[in-house]
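[job 0412] stage=fold_complex status=start
inputs:
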Amino acid sequence: MNIIGISAYYHDSACCLLQDGVLRAAAEEERFTRIKADPSLPKYAFKYCLEEGGLTIADVDCIAYYEDPRKKLARQLWSGALGRKPDLLKRFEPDWIEQQMEAILGYDGPVQYFDHHSSHAASSYYFSGFENSAILTVDGVGEWATTTYGVGSGAGLNIFEEVEFPDSLGLLYSTITSYLGFGVNDGEYKVMGLAPYGKPVYADKIRQLIIQEKGGQYRLNMKYFGFLSGNCMYSDGLIELLEREPAKEDSEPGQVQADVAKSLQVVLEEVLLEKAHYLFEETGCENLCMAGGVALNCVANGQILRKGPFKQLFVQPAANDAGCSIGAAALAHVQRTGKRPGQKRLSHVYLGPAYTAREIGNFLESTSIRFKDCRDDNDRLLTLTANKIQEGNVIGWFNGRMEFGPRSLGARSILADPRHPEMRDRINAMVKKREAFRPFAPAILYERARQHFELDHCSPFMLETCPVRSPLSLPAITHIDGSARVQTVHRETNPQFYDLLVAFEKVSGCPIVLNTSFNVKGEPIVCTPEDALRCFVTSDIDWLVLGNFIIDRKENDLELLKFVLLHLTPNKSGVRHDVYTFI
Amino acid sequence: MNLDNRPSESLKPLAKELSALLWSKNGDAGKKIELFRQLQPALDAREPGERKEDPQEVPEDTVGIWKRISKEGKLFFRRDFDQRADWLSWADVHDIPPKGNRRRIVLLGESVARGYYYDPYYNVAKELEAILKAQRLTVETEIIDLARTGMGMQDLCRMMRSCIRLEPDAVIIFGGNNWELEFTGSLEPEDQENIQQTFYTHGFPGMKTLMEQKFSRLVSDLLGCADTTLVGKGIPVIMMIPEFNLRDWKSVEPEQGMMWMPDGANEKWLCARDAAREAKKNRDMDRFGVAAAEMVGANPAHPLGFEWLGEFHAHCGQYEEARKAFATARDLILFTGRFCAPRCYGLIQDGILKEAPALGIRVIDLPAVFAHEWPDHIPNRDQFLDYCHLTIEGIKLAMRHAAREVIEVLTGKSIPVSSVRASALFPDKNVLAIAHFGAAIHNSHTGQPAELLRYHCARAIGYSPEAKQPMMEFMDFATRRSSSIFCKSFEKIAAGRKMRQYDGGVVSLANPARRKLLDVDLVDAIVNALHTVNIHLGEEIGELRTKEHHIGPEGIDLLESFYSRTDYNSFIGVPDSIVYGARTTESLFRFVFQGDGSGLAFSITCRTPGREDDGKCIGIFVNDVPGPIAKVPMGARWTTNHFTIGPGQLRKGLNTLRIGWPYTFQPLQPVHSTSHHMKLKQVYPVLGEISALRVRALQVE
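[job 0412] stage=fold_complex status=done
writing structure:
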């Protein structure tokens, strides 16, 4: 049984292949098109999934689509979103999604539609390894639901309560994100990173934005929000309440912004904890699965696990809309077979394309780049790279199959020495070219995790934070509040990355590297060797490992290639960043 | 909206009901309208006052990329640094000084007015200025060159408004090649529906008439703009109508899709086409002419019949008829929604000729000028480097006529063109060489035949052996799989700056993402040209092709652009699909065989959408092997078929796989859809589609 899952037309479109209940491939379209958060139908990701599965279009049993467009249209009509685009109704066609699938993918087979939050819920529960679990999904909005409460047991998944639009924790967070001068659908993560620099002095004011109601319910006080008009996330009411003009876009945040961010984070955690308690009472489950964009708030996730009633927490690594593709595919599988996907707990997300040594070698030979070929001596590659990290260099690491989801986990990563006091500022400024306050995360050999972090379980996806308890000084990955967002690295799932950490520990005594995504600000994470080389050349990365090949910046004069690449590469984004994309 | 600033809960059931109706194929239209009305409080939720930028507004202090600055008490216009990414598309002039004593002629226009391929070393403005200087008029003149590569209709109107800031004494407008996108872009959904309906009821002739009427109004609007902004303010306007390379230009694959015709018509066309091919091969020109006329009669929407008819008439010395036939072939693409090489359509030429004089606009009809200058000759590569960009010969003739008009405007004297000589300006041989090499590249990427590419490459080398370096560098990066911009040969060509004439010589040479071509014909043409100066790279290129594109046991995807495409032409407004669609009866794929092993194994997943016929098959052919090496039954559903080709039927190096799609008549089924893709499929049926086409090497046993 070959099921393709698709999420598209909103933001972060993606495609996956579930083959006989096993996830074989998944990728976001943005990685192929190089358009950030690309919302278009994921044709390249689709093509990749078929190739990875050894399939043709004739072998696809069905496409599972991640939301119900009819319900979504009803919400858009009610909320007035279409009032801004009146010609949409004139152009409306009932089967336009199938038409697009036929026109772009060539697919004319069955399409099954599943609700957005059901897709989120399924993307987490069916890949959690739990036999039963409570399920909490929280995002901006799907069709109507913004928050849902559910329970999974065996193959069954039941959502028993939801909060409806416009009452939305995700939109609350996005509104403050916009107020703080960051892009919506893009800057929420930055707000989370800014929060530890602040004090919750605005918490009482933020609490006025949301009214907790009984059970799983809450309401937003809409007088502070402007997103229904489509022009601005916040209203003048919010500006009056906070007694501050909104920050200018991309301005350097000051103490006030940090305090607002912290206050927001505190209130979000309060609400989520309360709702988690409610869910626990309703379900009696020890396990909790989470998904939806708000589940990417790993600080809140850490609080839920430590202070909440659940013993175990699984957050699907692609908790955003891209991950809905795998949820929809799982739901289709259950519907068709009556069984849950034959997947134990998702142990890795290396589900994207890989490139052979021959492909990479041919590519490098066509360039003017001087490189080392380590195809016959992997140990040498690892030792050299470990030494380079230890010497304070920044490493671009391109290895194996690409990750699925927003985190880089040792396949498309930038690595550095976490002990280096200036490393964070250097990578923020010169490599990623992003805001100075943004923290970095560590990757550590799983066996060493307890010695350095308050962490007693696997954390392969960097989706929770925990206190740093290391005998080593780790300024580059320790956030201002003493926390870190840890990735535990396991030999079974990424042997090359694991061996690199072993090699680094051998030369330095430190089993931890700084691990951040291999991209610069405004661009998707790299996918192909060309993307990686482009990022390397145009940023301040010192050393690039491309599969079995090494490129040392010191051995190359890259100015001309840099000029050519910068000349020809405009930044593109697939979504607006001033308001949430409802249409 | 209530005080809580959210729509009323009571509207939710209405919204859900309306959504259900919209999703239903047979929704009650009256009920939909009623529900819309009731939802108005929600639909009117937007805030007022959002100012929409008027595309016609032009910032007060700019003219094109030049921004007004004050220097030593005088007002100059200087190139705006913030727009430096666009500088290469305009004249390489940093400052436009304030107007002095000289009479100022402003030149507006497109790439043809830039002297594309020669600019900045030689161009239209320089030629005109030199001609006027040599005339020793009583008044001194200066030409302000505001032509821009890629200028469209709206841009032209904006330039007409802004160029007044330069205080021109006359304005020359040399353009009309780039107006197609705005024509097509002007069609509202209602227009497209109208066109569709007209096609159903009156076929291609009706559709053509309707579209011509619509587009002609846009030409009138542009002339009206010239009248209002320039003529009406006392500034004389000279409009130069571009000509087209009628003789050499060949229609390309997107243009050759077979429009739906009533039963029997396309079958007749196909028979006539085959007969014409055969006749041409046998050099039986009489039979060729008859067959070409039959093609035109059977399918008047297909350019190939008109092209061949033009060839026939030219062969017979009937140049007027030949011009008409070629011009018709050129114009047919306007009605098909494809995007190929820019051109000045007949309806634009006619519109200007008919309406401009009444508005006091002087017109230079280049088609008529060329016909008069060369009555026994159809415009060809002697006058054009490609579809519309002029050679030195073409520029000089055009500017002699422009100068004649300018002299009359400035002095009141009417003089014969024969007394206006071309200037002594001539670009040096290196510039000429690169111009022809650039033309070879551009002709290749717009789908022109190998013979024309060989001509331009030979001319390039013939003018100057300096061309050989960029040619060798081009061959290298064109042949590699890597994106051109990463190749060291590309770095060399960019650093060498020898290709500056070709749109700056960097961006223009980079391949679009995921669409790199193998450029086989062009690379082979370069090899041939280099051969004449004793550089023998055929073997080296063959080895490089094999290294980069060899087929191993893991296989390659023949739908990749290297193997499935030979140009960058495309359809407008059709979603970019991963499915290969064939609208002609033949699809060609190239692949490289390294000459070892047991041969190659292919798999093809294909269908003939909406068509089944037990009596016909999709034929698969390789190289010149007579007869199909495989046959796949027609079928509307996707099926995967496998076949092998033994080494005896393959050549070492490049091979061609040809897929022959059977044509069958399908009755026209009106489509009630706003989807452009679906409408296009109705008008231009897809004969075959390929979702996957892979080949792998068979191992030696």
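[job 0412] summary: Chain A has 20 helices and 22 strands.
[job 0412] exit 0
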